[in-house]
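Exercise 7. Predict the joint structure of the components listed below.
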Amino acid sequence: MENFEPVLVAFVCNWCTYTAADLAGTSRLSYPKNVRLIRVMCTGMVDPQYVIKALLEGADGVLVSGCHPGDCHYINGNYKARRRIKLLKEILPQFGFEPERLRLTWIGASDGIEFAEIMQELVKELKALGPSQAKMKMVV
Amino acid sequence: MAITATIEVNQQDLLTSLKAFCTKLLEQDAISAILVPQRLPMKSMVMPTLVTEADHLDGVDPLSPAFPMNGAKVLAKLTRRPSGGKIAAIMRPCEIRAFIELVKLKQARTEDVVLIGMDCLGAYGNTDYFRFAGEDAEAATRRFYESVLAGKGAALDGVDLTTACQACEAPFPTSADIAIGLHGVDTGRHLLVLGQTPAGDDLLQQMGLPSSEVPTERQAIMDQLRTSREKYRDDMFAATAAATDNIDKLNTYLANCVNCYNCRVACPVCYCKECVFVTDVFNHDPSQYLRWAKRKGAVKMPTDTVFYHLTRLTHMSTACVGCGQCSNACPNDIPVMELFRMVAHNTQRAFAYEAGNSVDEKPPLSEFKEDEFQEVVGL
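Solution:
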């Protein structure tokens, strides 16, 4: 357990959170290597099935992160994402998935420092939570 | 002004009266066809039929405990584009709710249809129905409704209503254009007919049925039925939650699943022409399966069973109307209706939405607001 390194799959939008991750990198900020960034054009394209697939097949946590309300490059993709996360947060805990394993954040393009801090915080939280039960089951 | 009328009944022969009502519907200039469940002439089975001539109404049987499919899909097929005529559709309340969901999902249209719903007496599962009906479906229907309407219950010959029906707190056609009422009505002498929308009133006006009043005790009887159904439903939810509240239990619950996807095929609101689970998206490279097996030691084949069910729940739980056709279709008797309805109930509550209630309420995932659900954002 002490050596447990969680896997955090992060769906980040091209215009805000991915840019923030880029900024964190060019600013030489460090954040845990547990994070697996998946760049999507918009959080509005993250179908709930991506989140479920990640949680069933190896992720200890999933982050969906995009632009702040009002800043979406596609006007309202982040609002759609928020409803889908609401839906998932309603469904998954009924089957024992801890609510902390799924997070939604808004990290703007200029928030490189905030990006690095949130990744550190999330990984710390997942380490405390321990390995996901779902990912090691023989039935997926 | 809502129209309240009656259909005459002789000696509790409801089927003949309903046939007469259908005949009268077909006589109306505004109606070109009716969609009504009928006993098939060749077999002891009840199916939706599309009828244009009154001499093909001999098997009219909307009271049968047979419920082979949710008719909303059939009606969507008939209404998705203008057909050049208007159809009067006689359906169960859960079929009407599913139809309304399909309208909102742009799979059907209300323009060319008059929805006629009946107080629903419930249904048996497919195999139970065959056993109950034997060779004489008409006698079976009569025995069924006589027992239920006399307050003697629906459990006959060792078969009972499906759990979906026993847990149905909404067996009343509240979202239909015209409702045919049985509860609180002296069904030995007449049936109650209620216009519930302007379209329903228009049609009733033309039909000129004898006018009447809603019996005073009707509401109380409906409330009582709703309360007892809610009790059954909530007990069912509690038992299902206890049986699935962690991933191991969920795996146990779904252990008999062979990924046949019958539950999806039977589901009236699962409308995608090509479900992602039958595409090549999850038809992985053979080496992928070996990698999974290697990582875990063993994987159950076919894979993506829990994944399929959880994904389908995110796709349809806001629209689930509780008809129970999923359980009816399951070849391995997994109580999927119990699971899907429980999740759907919680999902719909989370979005303050009631599936099938009204065409004017937008489905939860088709609208959004700038300032909402702040609780799911942030750490």
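Discussion. DSSP finds four helices and four strands in chain A.
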